[in-house]
Specification:
Elements lengths: L5 H4 L16 E6 L9 E2 L7 E6 L5 E14 L7 E5 L5 E7 L4 E5 L2 H8 L5 H5 L17 E3 L12 E3 L7 E3 L7 E8 L20 E7 L6 E4 L13 E2 L6 E12 L2 H12 L3 E14 L6 E8 L6 E11 L20 E6 L2 E2 L5 E2 L28 H10 L7 H6 L3 E4 L22 E2 L5 E8 L17 E16 L2 E4 L2
Antiparallel strand pairs: 1-15, 2-15, 3-12, 4-11, 4-15, 5-10, 5-13, 6-7, 6-12, 8-9, 13-14, 16-25, 17-24, 18-22, 18-23, 18-25, 19-20, 19-21, 19-24, 25-26
Length: 492
């Protein structure tokens, strides 16, 4: 018989004492666009429309649990033509959030940022995504999940059948001259690594402005002779003829705190000593390699202008044809875009050697690269170097293997704690961890050096013999702010 004291052996079923708990209860308040009265947004091929929502003052809310919702109709493209749309966040290119004077979020190229942050989804989180979110598990059989661009970097658009258990890349009309009907529900937690993506209940003593610049139509939809899944090739790719496409029923659903005890607690904190927060700040850099250049170096200067610490620097190299079927192409299978990479901080190399982007398990071995294929007589080129360096950041995430990584290639320098170790239920969210590279006013220089021998090959699909890459880089900084009855301000 146990000698443990009685309280240690009483089971839950034997405890009759109720527990007081103030749990969050979310109620979504529907907000229409302030500047566009029809709840419709007219899209254009190469330009944006600003969409503004106004967040009322003195209302406790959680932006990461809020979401955008809208519908759109892709008209039939015409005789012999199929319509397609990318399975992406396809509402905004840029986003700001603040008052009339300063912003707490000011992110250019936010569509590219959201695309690159996909790699930070845990596998469990990814599996819970809905198709309407624009990033969900493929609903078709794996061998029919089509990648709309050539993974070997060639100019012909033969379809790529993705055999992995992964997200869906695109959707197509079922038959020629048919339409597509799309509903989207975009949660603001896609902007993880910004204040809008933080799971925090906040309140402001003033009206706040949430503004988006709408996506360009040519990054959303396109048309072709073949559906990229109905046959063997995607040919005659062009901007979609549906230039008059509109987004309908555009609303923002603000997640308000419906538990009065919690809402009052947040309000009293704001009106009293203020809400003191350490918050992430994401900043965008955009560069383009020289046409046909076989090597490039990108340099960045980091100082405390954007924050007092730098958590990470993430870069994606995109096809320079940033529209139609290649709008979201950042694949790099066996160096079809980048053969090797090396980075440095203040001239100190961050890798011991040049990092090869060679996957010996893939049959793609493009002309113009320097790989030596394994044979019975030779081990060939070093394989898996890029994946080895990125694996600590990919572990436990939706990017489950080397093939998936190279299909969705990026490079990220993590100056803080290992992100992949913080994905279990007991972990502190990454945004709540004050870590990273300390910054001061003098600045530090970060450099990325890449070798791109395939760029001057006449058959590449990102500029032919004068191919170039568009590099989108995002610095993730740390700031301190206070929100009080006088507004909000940065304190460090």
């Amino acid at each position: 018989m146990s000698n443990l004291p009685l309280p240690d052996v009483i089971q839950t079923s034997n405890s009759y004492r109720p527990k007081v708990a103030y749990l969050s209860k979310i109620r979504h308040k529907r907000l229409g666009m302030h500047n566009l009265k029809s709840n419709e947004v007219q899209m254009a091929q190469n330009s944006s429309v600003q969409v503004e929502f106004r967040i009322p003052p003195k209302v406790a809310h959680n932006m990461s649990r809020s979401y955008l919702e809208f519908d759109y109709f892709v008209p039939a493209a015409g005789a012999l033509l199929f319509s397609h749309h990318h399975e992406q966040q396809n509402f905004f290119r840029n986003v700001t959030f603040g008052n009339t004077n300063i912003n707490l979020v000011e992110l250019q190229n936010a569509d590219r940022y959201v695309d690159l942050m996909r790699s930070r989804y845990s596998d469990k989180e990814f599996m819970s995504q809905d198709k309407e979110n624009g990033f969900s598990k493929a609903i078709c059989i794996p061998d029919s999940n089509i990648i709309p661009y050539k993974l070997n970097g060639l100019v012909d658009y033969a379809i790529q059948r993705n055999v992995h258990d992964t997200h869906q890349y695109m959707s197509s009309s079922a038959v020629v001259n048919d339409s597509l009907k799309v509903t989207r529900k975009i949660p603001l937690d896609v902007l993880r690594g910004t204040l809008l993506g933080m799971d925090k209940t906040l309140i402001y003593n003033e009206e706040m402005f949430l503004r988006f610049d709408s996506q360009h139509l040519n990054r959303m939809i396109w048309q072709s002779v073949d559906a990229g899944g109905q046959g063997t090739a995607v040919t005659a790719v062009a901007d979609h003829s549906g230039a008059a496409l509109k987004l309908f029923n555009v609303y923002f659903y603000l997640a308000t705190e419906d538990n009065k005890h919690l809402a009052d607690a947040v309000r009293n904190q704001m009106l009293g000593e203020g809400i003191k927060l350490t918050v992430p700040w994401a900043y965008s850099f955009k560069n383009r390699t020289n046409n046909g250049s076989q090597s490039s170096a990108l340099s960045f200067s980091f100082n405390n202008q954007h924050g007092y610490k730098l958590k990470r620097m993430t870069t994606g190299f995109y096809n320079s044809i940033e529209s139609k079927n290649t709008a979201w192409d950042r694949s790099n299978v066996n160096g079809t875009k980048i053969e090797s990479i090396r980075t440095s901080l203040d001239t100190n190399n961050l890798q011991d050697n040049v990092v090869n982007c060679y996957n010996s398990g893939r049959v793609v071995n493009p002309t113009g690269t320097n790989w030596v294929v394994k044979t019975a007589a030779t081990g060939g080129s070093l394989s898996g170097q890029d994946y080895r360096y990125m694996f600590p950041q990919l572990k436990n995430t939706v990017i489950r293997n080397y093939d998936l990584y190279q299909n969705n290639w990026f490079w990220s320098e993590d100056f803080g704690l290992d992100f992949s170790e913080n994905l279990d239920a007991q972990s502190v969210p990454d945004d709540d961890i004050n870590d990273g590279l300390p910054l001061d006013s003098s600045g530090q220089t970060y450099q990325i050096e890449i070798q791109t021998p395939f760029a001057n090959q006449a058959t590449n699909n990102y500029g032919a013999g004068n191919g170039s890459l568009v590099a989108y880089s995002f610095g993730s900084y740390v700031r301190d702010i206070i929100i009080d009855q006088n507004g909000f301000r940065r304190t460090q």
